[in-house]
Amino acid sequence: MENLIEAGNDMSRKKQRVRYELDIGNIRYLSDDEMKAILRAADELIAVGGRSILAKTLKGSKGKKVLENGLNQCPAYGYYRDLTLQDITNRVDWMIKNGYLEIEYRDRLPMLIFSEIG
């Protein structure tokens, strides 16, 4: 009986959510074209990907996750090819902080979703 109770406790334990911290760096403003490019790229991965994969898509990464999900076919793929991943992530975080995108947990991972204004 004791093993059954222990097994029950293991199954009811919540999985630790992956934490994230938004950082807009020195970004104070994004042009309409930039916002449209970020939202267009986000459209390809809403509720299935997060900030990192969005930044890699906008960078034009040839990483495994980008290619596996066909994100290299997205019209906004490589939009920010001349920026660093950190600079791109700052822009994505700006979009979240300013209400264009939101983060919602699916299981334990933070996923991007559109906000009302996004």
Describe this structure in words.
By secondary structure, the chain is mainly α. It has a single domain (24-114), classed as Winged helix-like DNA-binding domain superfamily/Winged helix DNA-binding domain (Arc Repressor Mutant, subunit A, Orthogonal Bundle), CATH 1.10.10. The protein contains 5 helices and 2 strands, in the order αααααββ. It has helices at residues 2-12, 32-43, 51-59, 64-68, 85-97, and strands at 101-106, 109-114. A two-stranded antiparallel ribbon has the order 1-2. Helix 3 (51-59) crosses helix 5. The protein is globular, with a radius of gyration of 17 Å. 25% of the residues are buried. The model is unreliable at 1-12 (pLDDT under 50).
CATH superfamily: Winged helix-like DNA-binding domain superfamily/Winged helix DNA-binding domain
Task: Find the CATH topology.
Answer: Arc Repressor Mutant, subunit A
Largest sheet: 2 strands, antiparallel
Overall structural domain count: 1
Report the helical percentage. Answer: 40-55%
User: Ends: how far apart?
Assistant: 53 Å
Taken as a percent bin, the fraction of beta residues is 5-15%
Q: How many β-strand stretches?
A: 2
- C-alpha geometry: globular
- Neighbour order of strands in the largest sheet: 1-2
On the 0 to 100 scale, the average pLDDT is 83
**Helical stretch tally:** 5
Instruction: Report the radius of gyration as a whole number of Å.
Output: 17 Å
Sequence of secondary-structure elements: HHHHHEE
CATH class group: Mainly Alpha
CATH architecture classification name: Orthogonal Bundle
Class based on secondary structure composition and strand pairing:
mainly alpha
Could you name the ranges where pLDDT drops below 50 across 5 or more consecutive residues? 1-12
